[in-house]
Amino acid sequence: MDTPFRKESLPRKTFIVFNALLLSVLGVIALIPFVHVLMASISDPFKLAANTGLILWPKGFSLVGYQKVFESVEIWRGYLNTILYTAGSVALGSVLTIFGAYVLSRRNLYWGNKAMFFITFTMIFNGGLIPTYILISRLGWIDTPLAVIIPNCMSAFNLIIMRTYFQTIPESLEESANLDGANKLQILFRIMIPLAKSSIAVVALFYVIAQWNSYFQAMIYLRSANLFTLQLVIQQILLKNQATTASASGSSAYVSVVAELIKYCVIMVSIIPMLVAYPFIQRYFVSGIMVGAVKG
């Protein structure tokens, strides 16, 4: 009895060791760019300008880049706008996804499979930019927050994940609630949603990341600077600093090197909120994405 177990355990242990080493190497490779940007953002601007290659330790120490970034009123306004747009998009998208997924997960839904076919079809083909722009314009949403929040507030991919999760919940729970006199809304809010907290957290995280990192919608539909998102503000700062660096002469060398430093600082400023938020949702991520992605 012991010999077969030991013969099987050796390949298993070998796989675990190899897998751990491989994932560790990939993790380090993925972490190096982040470390480079972080260390560069707190380096001395002149030493940073003279450096070539990766920076895995600060070249001197200076917070002048962050000081310059946070002195910008546009950065703070962009932060506020992005938080508001993200909150609106996540709230609306989560509600629509939950309601849509619950309805489509019911096995007795008439034409449910046909509806899912058309929803899945939109993941491959869409109307394109020009028809979407015309629609947004006809609705009067140009240069309004609605143009940023509404078009991307719901994802077919997230809907499929949530629908699959609802389908894994035993029908006996719903049948028992029906016998107790519960209606569909009561079943959804008192049974389905509490059981699907992990999947809802994952879907909400996907909406947060998509909206936080989005700049294209704002670039196309927004005109007023006081409505710009953080990503759009950062893009303008980078373009402005590139122009400053290109036109800098010997007398303005300091401006040139600080402009190079600011590029790293604005990148860190944009990703810090996601780094802070992710640990609070990480415990839901694995269970939510796996249970919602595989029906069994």
What's a concise summary of this model?
Mean pLDDT is 82; it is low at 1-5.
Helix content: over 70%
Distance between the termini: 33 Å
**Rough shape?**
globular
Tell me the CATH architecture of the largest domain.
Orthogonal Bundle
Q: Biggest sheet: strands, sense, closure? A: none
Number of domains: 2
Number of strands: 0
Helix/strand structural class? mainly alpha
The average pLDDT is: 82
This entry's quaternary arrangement is single chain
**What name is given to the CATH topology of the largest domain?**
MetI-like fold
Describe the protein's topology.
Elements (H helix, E strand, L loop, with lengths): L1 H40 L3 H6 L13 H7 L2 H32 L7 H10 L7 H10 L7 H4 L6 H13 L2 H9 L4 H12 L1 H16 L3 H6 L8 H18 L5 H41 L3
Helix pairs in contact: 1-14, 3-14, 4-8, 4-11, 4-13, 8-11, 8-14, 11-14, 13-14
Could you describe the 3D structure shown?
The protein is mostly helical. The protein has two domains: 1-63, no CATH class; 72-293, MetI-like fold. 76% of the residues lie in helices and 0% in strands. The chain has helices spanning 2-41, 45-50, 64-70, 73-104, 112-121, 129-138, 146-149, 156-168, 171-179, 184-195, 197-212, 216-221, 230-247, 253-293. The longest helix is centred in the C-terminal third of the chain and has 41 residues, at 253-293. The radius of gyration is 25 Å and the shape is globular. Mean pLDDT is 82; it is low at 1-5.
